[in-house]
Design a protein that fits this description.
The protein is an alpha+beta fold. The chain has one domain. It has 2 helices and 10 strands, in the order H-E-E-E-H-E-E-E-E-E-E-E. A hairpin with a 5-residue loop joins strand 6 and strand 7. The radius of gyration is 33 Å and the shape is globular.
Length: 208
């Protein structure tokens, strides 16, 4: 090999070495691609019901507790209250505060399409509303307590087998005159004329 060829070969080897070293150095110093992360929230609406029947002496005759079903009408009413009237269809065009409790004897399981109780018993009652905190302190909500005095459910005689409860925004009994927020059924509670009935409804909004 001539001297010129030897020198050219040495130059090429040097160039390759420098290039390779640069690539290796770049590779070693490169940081992994970071994708931006965001905090996602999945708010959850939870409802829980406690139903207690007591005799004339205040002794507990029956007790039930269960989670409720927030119906589609209730979700639509919430949207209308938060943002603007008539955005979503509701059974009553006027949406008020959901502080009325109704009970009945209907046995059909609660469904998201429900607009009222299966078979309402007596009139709804206006509940006492207080603020509550979701379990674990991750949310907030409201507690609505409705009470039926003796003789309110039976009109003075007989026994009513109460199997359902609903949360409403008005006293009116007609479906088109009030909005139902939530409903649930449960095993029958037999309420005699002298008995009282209390329904405690807890609605909480929390982070999942």
């Amino acid at each position: 090999m001539t001297t010129l060829n030897k020198n050219l070969a040495m130059v090429l080897i040097a160039v390759v070495a420098v290039s390779t070293g640069g690539v290796l150095a770049f590779t070693e110093n490169a940081q992994p691609l970071q994708t931006p992360t965001s905090q996602k929230e999945l708010p959850v609406v939870l409802g829980h019901i406690e139903i207690t029947a007591k005799d004339k002496d205040g002794n507990i005759q029956a007790y039930r507790q269960t989670d409720n079903l927030v119906v589609s009408n209730g979700l639509n009413a919430t949207i209308n209250q938060l943002f603007a009237n008539s955005l979503q269809t509701t059974s009553s065009a006027t949406v008020n505060k959901f502080n009325f409790v109704g009970v009945g004897t209907g046995a059909t399981a609660a469904a998201s399409t429900d607009l009222g109780l299966g078979t309402q018993r007596s009139n709804k009652v206006s509940g006492t509303v207080t603020a509550i905190t979701a379990s674990g302190g991750s949310g907030m909500g409201a507690q609505i307590v409705g009470n039926w005095a003796a003789n309110r459910l039976q009109n003075g005689s007989g026994t009513s087998a109460i199997t359902e409860a609903g949360l409403f925004d008005a006293f009116a009994n007609a479906t088109g005159s009030s909005n139902m927020y939530a409903r649930q059924t449960f095993s029958a509670i037999n309420v005699a004329a002298a008995d009282t009935l209390q329904v405690t409804w807890k609605i909480t909004f929390s982070h999942s």
